[in-house]
Amino acid sequence: MEMPRVPVNLVTAKQGEILKLGHITCRIQEDGSRTDNRIGSATFTLPPQTAGPPAHWHEMHDETFLVTKGVVRFHAPDGKVIDAAVGDYVTVPIRAPHTFSNPFDEEAEFFNTYTPAFYINYFKMLAKMQEGEQKMSAEKNLQAMAHFATMPAKGM
Questions:
Q1: Is 144 helix (H, G, I), strand (E, B) or coil?
Q2: Sorted alphabetically, which InterPro entries does this protein's record hold (predicted)?
């Protein structure tokens, strides 16, 4: 069998599509276009004292989070809280209710993956819906989630 000649791709620290999600910044590194939609990835920057999206679960994709700056608080059912620091890795499988926040006084950042990659389009939709808004709207967030097999987790 002949060796394949599939290209290896580099996204430098200055590249990637930048989205403003209210007060949160998202930099897309892989939108699935180079992986046949098998994986997508983005980096999120959370200012201090930032609430994340409404609690939810995904019906069609897994997520992972690698904290690269500060501390990110992950919220799970029954009041469970996980404070993930730099280098900590959180895996969120399909149907695992969750959300995240940065209730601390220092900026936080995480690298996020999605398998499959279609969920990247949720962030693009949300950015368009919230253009010019200073804070992320829970209502608009839930509206966008509904397009991507993401269900609200009430009572978390």
A1: helix
A2: Cupin_2 (IPR013096), QDO-like (IPR053146), RmlC-like_jellyroll (IPR014710), RmlC_Cupin_sf (IPR011051)
* Domain CATH number, residue 23: 2.60.120.10
Cα→Cα distances 78→22, 25, 121, 150, Å: 28, 29, 30, 20
The answer to whether the Cα torsion of 18, 21, 25, 31 is positive or negative is: negative
Q: Which domain holds residue 50?
A: 17-130
Query: Contact 68/33 with Cβ under 8 angstroms?
Result: no
CA nearest to 57, candidates 80, 75, 40, 82: 75
Q: Is 79 helix (H, G, I), strand (E, B) or coil?
A: helix
Q: Rounded to the nearest 5°, which phi and psi values hold at 25?
A: -105, 135
The amino acid occupying position 29 is Q
Give per-residue pLDDT as tens, 11-69. Answer: 999 999 999 998 999 999 999 999 999 999 999 999 999 999 999 999 999 999 999 99
Is 101 inside a domain boundary? Answer: yes
- Other Cβ atoms within 10 Å of 87 Cβ, number: 8
Report the domain count for the chain.
Answer: 1
- Paired with 82 in beta bridges are 74
